[in-house]
Design goal:
Length: about 350
């Protein structure tokens, strides 16, 4: 459940064929063989990157081919080599051979490179076959085919964004709106018993931003003492970068005061003891299609005072969902960049200290 997977097929470039040709020059009778070699086919290379966080880009695009080598030509011209292609995967990706199931490589560090399909060698042209006794060879070789392979990629996901709130406020509905996750949604509390993860992708490669959202069971007052489903599952969002706190503003919640709802949940987060209450947080006013206007404006005023960004959404009509999704992408991206530069500075400091 916490694993992102993709199946890919890759084909390295075929080698170019060798060429049969003879020199033909004015005044040079019976010129020698001059067929050039074929170029080598391009490799398919896999490279781990810190800029990628999920495998979602392969799901839309599972087949990759490197360029073939050009054929050799007369006048001893070798064919040009085919260009390599580089497929980027997130650090933490594990590569399996799809046919044998064998584990091929674990990309544990950034910028690890590995050839996952080798380009075919170019064939030799007839110039290579000439010997003192065999001066007009007509043989040449065809290029070798590039390797063709099927792989399975696996990545253990860590969630970037955690969805928190009371039961039944629409957390699972939201994740089903912004990702391919399809958790159970129903009109009773504690529908979700286990965390669900969804991958959200925005934009196109190479500028695509993707991130992982975790939908967790609802919290209620006293959860840290075991009431409801307790708070054990909150460890799944301990390492998230950002929380979305869903607060229901319809009357269906049966609770009179959204600000009080907010505070009860914050108190439970704090009681869990992992600093969840201090994480960056966006507030989503949920079920605005059936909002009680008074509740919505009360929550709005509260958020303004607390300097919390508020996003009114409806998982049913879709209102506000895109805006929230883009805001999440932006915040996640900012936080990741900050983390990268922070690591960079630590590295430099460490080096300077030595
Ligand atoms: N009118 C309206 N109903 C919604 C909205 N979002 C969710 N619902 C309904 O509210 C109910 C609960 O939704 P869920 O997504 O299961 O809520 P949850 O927060 O995941 O609930 P738990 O898993 O029990 O914590 C379902 O009947 C949904 O159809 C919304 O924006 N508007
Ligand atoms: Mg749910």
């Amino acid at each position: 459940m916490f694993i992102d997977e993709a199946n890919i097929r890759v084909k390295a470039g075929d080698g170019g064929n060798g060429c049969v040709a003879f020199r033909r020059e004015k005044f040079v009778p019976r010129g020698g063989p001059s067929g050039g070699d074929g170029g080598r086919g391009g490799d398919v290379i896999m490279e781990s990157s810190e800029r990628h966080n999920t495998l979602v880009h392969f799901r839309f695009n599972p087949e990759h081919k490197a360029e073939r080598g050009r054929h050799g030509e007369g006048s001893n011209r070798s064919g040009r080599e085919g260009a390599n292609i580089v497929l980027k995967v997130p650090v933490g990706t594990i590569l399996y051979d799809a046919d044998s199931g064998e584990r091929v490589h674990d990309f544990v560090r950034p910028d690890e490179r590995m050839v996952i399909a080798r380009g075919g060698r170019g064939g030799r042209g007839n110039a290579r076959f000439a010997t003192s006794t065999h001066q007009a060879p007509r043989e040449c070789e065809p290029g070798r085919p590039g390797e063709e392979r099927a792989y399975r990629l696996e990545l253990k996901l860590l969630a970037d964004v955690g969805l928190v709130g009371y039961p039944n406020v629409g957390k699972s509905t939201l994740i089903s709106r912004i990702s391919a996750a399809r958790p159970k949604i129903a009109d009773y509390p504690f529908t979700t018993l286990e965390p669900n993860l969804g991958v959200v992708a925005i934009g196109e490669e190479p500028e695509q931003i993707s991130f992982v959202v975790a939908d967790v069971p609802g919290l209620i007052a006293g959860a840290h003492q075991g009431t409801g489903l307790g708070t054990q599952f909150l460890r799944h969002i301990e390492r998230t970068r950002l929380l979305v706190h869903l607060v229901e503003v319809s009357d269906a919640s049966g609770r009179p005061d959204p600000v009080q709802d907010f505070e009860v949940i914050m108190n439970e987060l704090a009681s869990f003891g992992a600093g969840l209450e201090k994480k960056p947080m966006l507030v989503a006013a949920s079920k605005i299609d059936v909002a009680n206007k008074r509740k919505l404006s009360k929550l709005r005023q509260f958020c303004r005072r607390q300097k919390l960004a508020l996003y009114p959404i409806s998982g049913v009509t879709g209102e506000g969902i895109d805006k929230l999704k883009y805001a999440l992408a932006k915040r996640v991206d900012e936080i990741r960049k900050k983390e990268l530069t922070a690591e960079g500075t630590e590295d430099t400091e460490e080096r300077l200290a030595h």
